């Protein structure tokens, strides 16, 4: 029994080292809901603090949706007290936030979580935030993105590291996590809504994947995760090439303040000589610099921007949305932030 427990902890340790997720003297905020994934992450990383010489704090969100929310909070807090880990909690009404902002409940919950993680990190001086996504989550995400018509980036699934966000459990299966919880007597909280086939992810998890495992491939999760690794390698290469080409054709980055860009100017002729895939990545790179996100730029907008550039006609412009303006003039591409 002890050997099996150590195997899982060793597996996570080796994954952390392989992906360079945690370094000596790091301070990491752990997002802990109290479910099997996050409580296992808490328990394993608490043990690994002694080996890797880093600190952890815990952030928990009480969404006020489930009746058991207060018990979940108390459960996580007790574990933190037992292990001597700083505990931070946010109480909020996610349903009210979703209605107010006219967004879905899942999106509202996610926004609240990540905003709070950032807040706790800033308060504690933490440089990393750990999320307990596992191997099964990755496979489910790839299938969700595939059905939504996602491009190659969507097939990358979940990355082990994105900026300050790390996912130390990403090579661990849900079955391994549940076994570990039993062996360590963690008694995690169980979200009953995970078994309700209301949300798309739940349908994929509870209906689609079991059917695929039974009828087509019992190792479908391994296959999906291999696909993610292949696509991540390709995406990283393309991103590096696009960043280099962005620098090559950049004329000017104009700032409205020390930390904010107002507009970006690129060479039109050099831009049009590049492969279309790289052109798209360059536009996205510029939009990311201007707005800090590319969420509001849809595929149709990207296609329209490329058409405008390829026509190579001066004094033409395009406004894909109320915040963005693309102008072609003086043989240059001006990507402008309006608000």
Write the layout of secondary structure elements.
Layout: H1 2-19, E1 27-31, H2 36-52, E2 55-62, H3 69-83, E3 87-91, H4 94-101, H5 105-124, E4 128-130, H6 135-147, E5 161-162, E6 165-166, H7 174-183, H8 200-215, H9 220-249, E7 250-255, E8 261-267, H10 268-272, H11 276-291, H12 299-311, E9 316-321, E10 324-329, E11 332-337
Parallel strand pairs: 1-2, 1-4, 2-3, 4-6
Antiparallel strand pairs: 5-6, 7-8, 8-11, 9-10, 10-11
Helix pairs in contact: 1-7, 2-7, 4-5, 6-8, 6-9, 9-11, 11-12
Tell me about this structure.
This protein has 339 residues and is α/β, with parallel strands linked by helices. It folds into two domains: 217 residues, Rossmann fold (3-Layer(aba) Sandwich); 100 residues, Uridine Diphospho-n-acetylenolpyruvylglucosamine Reductase, domain 3, CATH 3.30.465.60. It has twelve helices and eleven strands. The strands form two sheets. It has a six-stranded mixed β-sheet, sandwiched between helices. Helix 4 packs across helix 5, helix 6 crosses helix 8 and helix 11 packs across helix 12. The N terminus is likely disordered.
Task: Sum up the structure in keywords.
12 helices, single chain, Uridine Diphospho-n-acetylenolpyruvylglucosamine Reductase, domain 3, disordered N terminus, globular, Rossmann fold, alpha/beta
Task: Write a brief structural summary.
The protein is 53% helix and 17% strand. It has 339 residues and is of the alpha/beta class.
Give the averaged pLDDT, no decimals: 90
> What is the number of helices?
12
Strand and helix order = HEHEHEHHEHEEHHHEEHHHEEE
Kindly, what is the distance between the CA atoms of the first and last residues, rounded to a whole number of angstroms?
59 Å
- Find the count of extended strands (DSSP E, 2+ residues): 11
Which geometry do the CA atoms define? globular
Tell me the name of the CATH homologous superfamily of the largest domain.
HUPs
At the fold tier of CATH, the topology name of the largest domain is Rossmann fold
Structural class: alpha/beta
How many domains, in number, for the residues?
A: 2
Strand order of the largest sheet: 3-2-1-4-6-5
Helix content: 40-55%
Low-confidence stretches: 1-5
Q: Kindly estimate the percentage of residues that lie in beta strands according to DSSP.
A: 15-25%
Query: What oligomeric state is this?
Result: single chain
Q: Based on the structure given, which CATH architecture of the largest domain is correct?
A: 3-Layer(aba) Sandwich
- Largest sheet composition: 6 strands, mixed
